[in-house]
Amino acid sequence: MAVRRILQRLVVFLLVLGGLWALWEGYKWLWESTGWTKPFRVNEYTLPHLHEIVLQLREPTSTGDDLWLYLLHATLFTARAAVAGFLIGALVGFALGVALAQFDVLRRGIMPYVVASQTIPILALAPIIVRGLGSVSIGGSPPPDWVRVAVIAAYLTFFPVTVNTLRGLRSADPWALELMHSYAARGWTILWKLRIPSALPYIFTALKIAATASVVGAIIGEAPASIAQGLGGAIVSFNQYYVLEPSNLWATNLFAALLGISFFLVVLLVEKLVVRRAPERLV
Amino acid sequence: MSESSVVSLHDVSKVFGKGVTALEGIELEVERGDFVSLIGPSGCGKSTLLRIVGDIVSPSTGDVAVNGKPARRARLDRDYGIVFQAPVLYDWRTVAKNIALPLEMLGWDRARRKARVRDMVELVELSGFESHHPWQLSGGMQQRVSIARALSFSPALLLMDEPFGALDEMTRERLNMELLRIWAETGSTVIFVTHSISEAVFLSTRVAVMSARPGRIAAVVPIDLPQPRTFETREAPRYFELVTEVREVLHASGADEIEEPLPLEDVVE
After folding, report:
1. Domain of residue B68, residue span
2. B193 near B37, Cβ under 8 Å?
């Protein structure tokens, strides 16, 4: 039974993959053979064959390593910043959500600034923060590059966690709250025994958003500050040489996507282990 | 107030924010070991009255004493257990852990909790389901867990707000029998809110019939059916006489006229 389900999923996965491949190649073939130029001209540069992108992974880069190895290093560098940023963002976001839920005054006073923080374009803010942190001295030297990038990732991840924590903490069943009241439970006991468990499905929804956002945040944090070791650096340099070898940039995108997906799956796995709910009540 | 009163209500009224009078001039004494049902039309404030006894809602005027103390003091002393219409179990806790919830609040150690949970599971006949999660149980079983949780810390008073209202007739009758057995075994005092005349008569030692808004206690009907009640009780002529008597008081107090829905019972301060 379990084997059948796994097989079924595998077949669906392969079918979707095949469908996407057919869509890509079909689009390319149709546009090239008819000479359509809308919405953009399709050729070897704008849309390389998928197999060429994959084959490109085995070609050496200017660093001497094969592309796949180079991208693997870059992915790990970015992953470190993304994971650190995710953890900082999740913790700060959760703590802020709890504080805002517990104290009405705080919510009214601080929430507008929390929202404002996310309306400033991260592209404008990232270089300022990353460069600014470069001039901060911790123990005689500035924080390492990946730490500065992690701050950007954290900046992008705390917001969904705060908003959903706030919403989740206030989602507790009113009868369950009456029950706690009947036990003469204190605010912090209610928080720990009822509100936080009630909020977990909401928090994990936010963590899934945050997982992918932290990868984007790390990449964006690297690019404008000329930090070259990560995926952001790879994107900047491959973008400059795009006309010479478009497959490099596409392959980089592929690695970035894989990083985001694996991060998402880790959060999903933790959710399955932590959140106990009736199947139909999972958010 | 009599010596053995568990609950004593004197001139209790409740006016909600917009000037809606939910309860007026409520007088009620509940003696130790009593099983008192509150029955009345929708919106007559019977659930509000129950919440006033539990100090979940505060009365606008009047005195509320539970175990001879102000209602607030009684709540802080955990003098009562409460059961709602829904089981209100925590999804993330097993049956055993749900029952242990109030014991955790009371600071019982693990061994003592475990022993008590075992007793309670036996009392509500759910042995073997301790490590199930609520969604793996039927509605009737969930409500039994809820009753076990309410009784786990042996409160003198059990407040029940239409606990079987959402269950089918068969399950409801079976749980009625179980509740009476538990009531006899634990010697607790029960205040029981219900819509069902037959349920109220079958379970209670006294039925307090409430009138439509503003809610007043129109009459208290003593139920002199012999104890213990059995399945035959529902077929006894005296049972039908009492059902008729309660129904007549209900109708005389205007139960038929109220149809406008006002979600008063939902108003919690």
Report:
1. 1-79+157-166+186-261
2. yes
